[in-house]
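Methods: example folding runs. The two proteins below were folded one after another, and each record is reproduced exactly as written to the output file, sequence line first and structure-token line second.
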Amino acid sequence: MRLPTLFNALALLAIAAASAWVLPGAANAATPFARIDPAPFMLDPADSFQRYGSVIDELESSGKVRKAPTLSSALDGPQDFKPTWGLCHGTGITAGLDPTGFCWDARDDGWDTANWRPQGISGSWDAQPSGLWENRRITVASWHGIKDSDAFGRLTFVDFTSTGTLKFRDVLLVVPVRTATGVTFTTFNWNHADGVVWYGNTLLVANGGRLHAFRLTHLWAMDRSAEDIGLGPNGDQPASARWHRYALPMVGEYYPEYTPAPGSPYVGCSSITGVRPCMNSISLDRRGSARDSMVSAEFVGPNQAGGRAFRWPMDYTTALPALSADGKVHAEEAFTSPIWHMQGVASDGTNWFLSGTCAGGTGTCVHKAAANQAPSQKTRVYGGLENLSYQPVATGQAARLWGINEGNERFVFSIKVP
């Protein structure tokens, strides 16, 4: 998602008058985070898991791709980049929220200089109820690139078990395909790689129009370091993933309500209105005794409000969104949000945390809302705040709210739940 733009004073007055969303302290006059009927909203995997799964099975059984033993083995390999623990840039975050986190390698630090745009945030706190994955504390971020393009998507895993020495791994997202010369994999080039959720072995990545699924059980180690992606033009070269040491192939995807017939044009999502919800920000909500769920929010432009937020059921036995008897995923809750330029969403089961334009009209902030109540602003975050993730209480861990920014002087932060 793009950085917020600055509005002039006249535009701000017009927007404020039209939206009725005002500064905290006048909540009785503000627009609520309002419930709407969730019944029309669904996600449909169609036959995508069968289609992609058959190609992956054939690739792996042929020996043309090599599976990594574990994510930990990938993280322990050569370190090409060096993120550092600690908020090395000014964050704007309220000191009372106890902000901590890490900064990226200098090559990923700036909007103007870096080739990739960070978007989503999740971690081992989502992957397992214990908050650990293979006995490690790990974050994962989603990125799109190069720069403002959607030509490629990647995930970055950062092991912060020892904050003194972070371990880092970029993984390129790819698509398994069947061609005239056989099976191979190719560029994930129609994806903005927005929000990400790590749930069990599954990584879910939103791109606006669709929700894509990847599995760590298919983490492929590359045997060739080259610019191309796949097995070469004739399908007979060692696997390459555009200089990345590892790649993750898509195992399935979910479409908003409409399932395209083979050969027909794809019908995309429609934010704010319509029954095909856009999947931009996503995060996991582990609610203890309640069923796990995923929440999502629609991105809206700098001068807009009204983006919708949804809650979707999750199935821990499959580590995927839960299917109903009709084979589709049905929304459990839906809301319309008054937050301008909404970029991120998280939930603790009752409260919702939303990122978007600050109440003054410039900058990006974390807002908190409950159903049918007006949001309140909790803290500013410098650098174009993107997605959020709620870390629940787990062994040795307090509840925290994580976030990621995409502008210059980038960082990943964790704060007390406001």
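Second run, written to the same file directly after the first:
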Amino acid sequence: MLERPGYTAIDLRPLAGGEGTSAYSVSDTEFVVGESGSTPARWNREGDPSALAVLDGYSGGRACDVNKTGVIAGILHDGEQLRPVRWDPAGAVERLEMPADAVSGAVNRINDRGSMLGGVMEPGYRWHAIRWTPEGHLVELEPLTAGGETQAHDLNELDEVAGTAKDDSGVRTAVRWNRSGEISRLPSPRRATACCVNDQGVVAADGVSWNRDGQATLLAGGQAFRAGQTLRLTNDGATIGWGATTDGQQIGVRWDRSGEPTVLPPLPSDTSSTCFDIDDAGVVVGESAGGTTVRPVWWDEDATPRRLPSPAGLDAIVAQHVTMSGNIIIGYGYDPAEAVYRGIAWYRS
């Protein structure tokens, strides 16, 4: 019988004693990025932190995403005002352009080309989806109607975007944008939010996916469960999310490209599971819960849950992201001595 690989847990230590840490993204080049306290930070394979530069006039920020070249996208903040920025691999920070009337902005995705995705807020708390080129220039994503609100959720390597927009009646609907920023509605059956898009142009939302031509595939559970939220999509067309079982328990699910589901069960003695990310080989990461206990898990192709270990001094809780190769998983746990939450990285043994 083939022996399954395991993972080694690494504590993502704080910049200053007693601070909490959060890991938001990880690249296959083994950099983890996030924040320590309120300072944007990145960690090496040993869990040693280094602070990322903060522009004058800003009190802190967070590193939200990192690509394979080591370029990092994130935000700086001063009170309630947010500024989208990026850091080069050496850690130098650069402002990203915003429209002249924008009062705040954020970036939360960067692809391997260096294109970035986020949004800006105009007076009146109206948010609009924005994409930035690798050079840092704005590409405004069209609304459905003049002045209509838009929100972007995912970006593929072709600079295509999935998200949501308000129509003429003010109702939100799932949409996609092409590389030029032109918008199109996703056809019936529509959902309010398109949450992910892969490099084949497949878009997924709650309970449905669409191919590039707009053909829909329903993501259902049959008699086993009622389909709920969709979270991630691989380039092979596998989709993960969660559903509700007939007795009301939340359960993680992986659908293949034809829409056939595989339940991702909790660990023995637990009652519910939730999944958050999937790699190119179909490895899924998430959490298993029962009573007051929550534990991080990963599921392989056979959908057997396997618990991830805790670093010394931490109680691991959840696994939230995995690299496309499956070599690195990130999440967080609790430090009972300092009474703070800390980021954790798991490296494949």
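Comment on the second run: The chain has a mean pLDDT of 93.
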